[in-house]
């Protein structure tokens, strides 16, 4: 079966895999006893999450006064973290939906983990609006349900309410999309398992048989879900940007916000996918499935979206100057040269300048550089949200209201805690589900893998491939 | 499912190209295939097997429209009939402000409805246990199954052997 390569594209699955080997490689991490690295990582994540949980309880018990917000700066780390996490949560559905529509086969190597990451990131994000309400026990007031208070309805004209709908829809759709993709793979795990484990995976696999009609419907469902998830993923960060853009605060009240936020979300989401995938592929030995080609493709997306974000920053500056509107001009001057100049500098440096290194092909294919860059970008994207929120609010229309804000230990604890939650969930996911979509990898093996059999296929003549071929034939 | 004590003869192929060839041959011989199972969606199988196109997208459209109407009419009723409030001097029926939520609910209804429909029409769901012919089908084998009630057992066996399958049978 081996020895065929596409003359046009580099293979997306390397190592002359057979279908059985793919199953073996991708399912066995869920069957082994957890490695020492995993256990250490898990304990660390859970401990960090425990710190966050304590800080959340502290906030709920004592109130929002435990944060350093004030009359002028009424959104700080809470909403910064919310927007940051939501942005990270954009890569998963982008990879699985938009790349499916564009028939990008490299998505199959990373879509599963990226979707999982999306779901966990949205969970972390959703936490912040809930706790920043102060009285979290009344959180159900944000939903329009018939109630005994009138019924008193929510304000459907408010972008904050649009956000409630956008994020809950996004979470639900991502979860369904992800789980439907997992069902056939859970069936594969089930059919290799014994005893209690078989029972659990039988439940999780929903009784999947692999029937031709089911596969046909499954592919239809994936395609249509992708079709409607595409505008959805674009709408979510658009609506998040409306939280700012529909206000009348100089620096927020701009029409460029929706595209600029969406590009930034894809940018930070891909960076987080890279951070996670580079570690995962190394620890689980998935280099044949998440190849340098995948890394390079994602780095290209990072380069494009990073540059879009850079253009957006410069456009904002230009328009502020060109508007002739003194408050707008001051808002942007204040961002770059005001008390928070360091966060503006961090944002510009990490988001605009550093990704430009990826114009060079060999740097795009460098794992270490990519890893550091992915962390850099996420720091930069956090700064971007901080610049937009705290810096803008710090300078009010009234100079007497001007203020400065720095987080308390509670706010820092909650932020770090969400990272603990995120990594805890991701580590559990790595143990219970295949991190690479098994069935989808099998389906591209012969059209996009190194066993390409399509038109123009020719026999590879490299040494080891010929040897492997001889070996398979001798069996 | 009610069809108990059905004897199924099935063949396992190593490769999807062998499977496609065999399905085509079986159709030419007018052998009535009960079902085909594979570890991943095999492209080009549906037309040979004579599977009609899925109508899931129609269901999706209906659910989506339902979402559109729920959101738009719901907000209209709340803000014009049930509890009209003036926000920022805007009209009660401020259509542009309704667009985001209308869009989100359209997507939500379409997705949730389609996913539920998918599991119901496939007979899948939490707690469902189906008959699994062979554990290797979800790994690396491609399977054609014949029901002995509609196809002569000996004919099915000889067909499967001839086309290069590993032949098995199971009473389900």
Throw out a few tags for this protein.
heterodimer; A: 475 residues; mainly alpha; two-stranded antiparallel sheet; 17 helices; globular; disordered N terminus; disordered C terminus; B: 172 residues; alpha+beta; 2 domains; four-stranded antiparallel sheet
Give an account of the 3D structure:
Chain A is mostly helical. Chain A has a single domain (4-143, 154-181, 216-445), classed as Formate dehydrogenase/DMSO reductase domain (Formate dehydrogenase/DMSO reductase fold, Up-down Bundle), CATH 1.20.1630. Chain A is 69% helix and 1% strand. In chain A, helix 5 (107-132) packs across helix 6. Chain B is an alpha+beta fold and 172 residues long. Chain B has a four-stranded antiparallel beta sheet, covered by helices on one side. At the A-B interface, helix 1, helix 6, helix 8 and helix 16 of A face strand 2, helix 2, helix 3 and helix 4 of B.
Question: What is the end-to-end distance of chain B?
Answer: 10 Å
Approximately how much helix is present in the residues of chain A?
55-70%
Mean pLDDT of chain B equals: 88
Number of strands of chain B: 4
Are there runs of chain A of 5+ residues with pLDDT below 50, and where?
1-5, 458-475
């Amino acid at each position: 079966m081996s020895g065929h390569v596409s003359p046009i594209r580099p293979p997306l699955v390397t190592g002359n895999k057979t279908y059985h080997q793919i199953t073996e490689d991708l399912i066995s991490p869920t069957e082994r006893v957890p490695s020492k690295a995993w256990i250490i990582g898990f304990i660390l994540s859970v401990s960090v999450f425990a710190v966050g949980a304590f800080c959340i309880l502290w906030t709920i018990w004592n109130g929002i006064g435990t944060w350093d917000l004030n009359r002028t700066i009424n959104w700080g780390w809470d909403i910064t973290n919310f927007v940051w996490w939501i942005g990270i949560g954009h890569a998963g559905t982008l990879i699985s939906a938009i790349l499916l529509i564009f028939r990008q086969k490299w998505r199959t190597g990373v879509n599963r983990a990226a979707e999982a990451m999306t779901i966990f990131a949205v969970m972390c994000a959703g936490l912040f609006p809930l706790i920043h309400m102060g009285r979290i026990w009344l959180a159900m007031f944000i939903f329009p349900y018939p109630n005994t208070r009138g019924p008193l309805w929510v304000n459907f004209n408010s972008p904050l309410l649009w956000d409630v709908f956008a994020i809950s829809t996004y979470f639900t759709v991502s979860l369904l999309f992800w789980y439907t993709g997992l069902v056939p793979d859970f069936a594969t795990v089930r059919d290799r398992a014994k005893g209690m484990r078989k029972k659990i995976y039988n439940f999780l696999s929903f009784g999947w048989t692999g029937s031709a009609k089911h596969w046909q419907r499954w592919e239809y469902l994936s395609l249509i879900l992708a079709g409607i998830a595409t505008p959805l993923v674009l709408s979510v960060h658009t609506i998040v940007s409306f939280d700012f853009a529909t206000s009348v605060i100089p620096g927020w009240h701009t029409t460029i916000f929706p595209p600029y936020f969406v590009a930034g979300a894809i940018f930070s989401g891909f960076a987080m996918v890279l951070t996670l995938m580079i570690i995962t592929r190394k620890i689980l030995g998935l280099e044949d499935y998440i190849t340098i080609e995948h890394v390079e493709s994602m780095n290209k997306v990072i380069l494009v979206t990073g540059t879009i974000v850079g253009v957006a920053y410069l456009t904002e500056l230009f328009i502020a100057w060109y508007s002739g509107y003194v408050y707008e001009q001051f808002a942007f001057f204040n961002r770059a040269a005001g008390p928070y100049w360091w966060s503006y500098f961090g944002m510009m440096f990490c988001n605009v300048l550093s990704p430009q290194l990826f114009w060079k092909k060999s740097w795009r294919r460098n794992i270490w550089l990519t890893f550091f860059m992915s962390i850099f970008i996420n720091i930069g994207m956090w700064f971007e949200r901080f610049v937009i929120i705290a810096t803008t609010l710090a300078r009010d229309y009234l100079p007497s209201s001007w203020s400065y804000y720095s987080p308390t230990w509670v706010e820092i604890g909650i932020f770090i805690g969400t990272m603990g939650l995120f990594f805890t969930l991701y580590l559990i996911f790595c143990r219970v589900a295949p991190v690479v979509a098994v069935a989808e990898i099998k389906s591209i093996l012969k059209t996009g893998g190194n066993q390409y059999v399509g038109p123009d296929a020719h026999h590879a003549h490299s040494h080891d491939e010929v040897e492997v071929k001889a070996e398979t034939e001798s069996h | 499912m009610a069809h108990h004590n059905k004897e199924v003869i099935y063949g396992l192929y190593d490769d999807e190209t062998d499977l496609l060839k065999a399905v085509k041959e079986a159709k030419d011989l007018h052998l009535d295939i009960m079902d085909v199972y594979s570890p991943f969606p095999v492209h080009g199988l549906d037309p040979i097997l004579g599977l009609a196109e899925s109508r899931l997208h129609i269901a999706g459209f209906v659910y989506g429209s339902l979402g559109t109407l729920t959101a738009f009419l719901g907000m209209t009723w709340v803000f014009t009939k049930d509890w009209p409030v003036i926000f920022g001097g805007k009209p009660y029926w401020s259509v542009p402000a309704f667009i985001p939520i209308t869009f989100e609910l359209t997507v939500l209804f379409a997705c949730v409805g389609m996913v539920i429909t998918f599991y119901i029409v496939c007979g899948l769901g939490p707690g469902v246990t189906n008959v699994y012919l062979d554990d290797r089908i979800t790994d690396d084998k491609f399977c054609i199954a014949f029901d002995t009630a509609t196809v002569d057992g000996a004919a099915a066996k000889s067909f499967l052997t001839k086309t290069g399958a590993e032949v098995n049978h199971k009473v389900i």
